[in-house]
Amino acid sequence: MASLPAQADPPAPAPAPKPVLVDTVVATVNDSAIMWSALRTNTYGRLRTLEARYGRLRPEDIERVSREELDELIDRNTMAQAAKTFGVFTPEQVETFFRRDLERDEQEQIRDFGSHQAWNQALQNAGRTWQTYVNEQRVDKLANYAEEFSVNMRLQRQSNLFLTPRMLRETYEREKSRFVRPAEALVALIVFPGPDAAAKAAAAAAAWQQEDLTSSQLAARYPGAIAPPNAVASSLIPELAQWAIAGPQGIVSTPIERTGSVQVAKVVSFLAARNGRFEDLDVQDELRLMCGRGVIEEFRKQALERARQRTEVWRTQGAR
To answer: What SS3 state is found at 17?
Structure first.
């Protein structure tokens, strides 16, 4: 009896492709969705700035920045959602304001890009559409309206009632170091050791007066020169400290001989002394500006709290 031919093993199934996240909802404010792509865009610029300043960020730092940016997006959407419910204007009027401003923005964009087609192409190049642009503008403009309704109009009606003499006086006492202070200076130094120190220091002083260089950049021109970290004037020898607090910013010292070396100094930042009294007009103006900002910030907090009472927020588990 003939044997049956052996059957070949079936081919191994192809591995399933890994899913790729295109976009997803990370939070909602009422019926308005906040997308992961929007959060990523907002977070990216801030992370790059922090990395440039502090170097490589830890995962917990990245997560913290992402949470803070999401909180800001939620607050912005919360204010936008509440713009039609503050009672200053009807929802229909607010929508009319938005459509009017959107049309004005559209005309400006077409004028800037040269044509409607060129503008649409620019949106596509940025991965956006007309609808996503409208949605972005709706959040931004309605949030601005809400702040205008709840903060600025309130200030216009009662601005004189919020800045009381007591508030000004208490702010002056609390922030007195802003108005009464000694002169302060930050000084950069270059130290030149060796037998030719005097000649190098003289050349460096002349160059420093003409060129905007850091102490490290200038010291690199002279082998053996040392550029210690910048120091506040009060930490320097009395002779140099008195010279520095006389200012102004950018002044370069003549070479200063020290035991075994010659130094050159430059004032890189300078804050003049001040003895501002509460009664001085410039102090009063500054106090009113400071207090006004504080009042506006308090009104914004109150407006945001009112807006939060009118909205429901949901976050994904990973965004909490």
So the answer is: coil
> Alpha-carbon distance 251 to 266, whole Å?
6
Per residue in 92-123, pLDDT (tens digit) is 888 898 899 999 988 998 898 888 888 888 88
Tell me the pLDDT tens digit for each residue of 245-302: 998 999 999 999 888 899 999 999 999 999 999 999 999 989 988 888 888 888 888 8
| CB-CB contact of 247 with 183 (8 Å) | yes
CA dihedral 114, 115, 118, 122 (to 10 degrees): 80
Give strand pairing partners of 314.
28
Is residue 255 a contact partner of residue 264, using CB atoms and an 8 Å limit?
Answer: yes
Cα 189–194–199 angle (5° rounding)?
70
In angstroms, the CA 99 to CA 97 distance is 6
Query: In Å, how far are 23, 115, 140 from 43, measured between CA atoms?
Result: 15, 32, 17
Cα atoms found within 13 Å of the Cα of residue 55, Cβ hemisphere only: 0
Contact 39, 72 (CB under 8 A): no
What is this structure's pTM? 0.58
CB-CB neighbours of 241 under 10 Å: 17
Sequence-distant (6+) residues with CB within 8 A of 106 are none
Task: State how far the Cα of 85 lies from the Cα of 87, in Å rounded to an integer.
Answer: 5
* Backbone phi and psi for residue 52, each to the nearest 5 degrees, phi listed first: -65, -30
Sign for the pseudo-dihedral over CA of 281, 287, 288, 290: positive
- The structural domains of the chain, with segments of one domain joined by +, span 25-159+315-319, 183-272
CATH architecture of the domain 25-159+315-319 equals Orthogonal Bundle (1.10)
Tokens 């890994």 belong to which residue? 18
CATH annotation of 183-272: 3.10.50
Q: Which of 82, 102, 199, 197 is nearest to 145 (CA)?
A: 82
Indicate the SS3 state at residue 20. coil
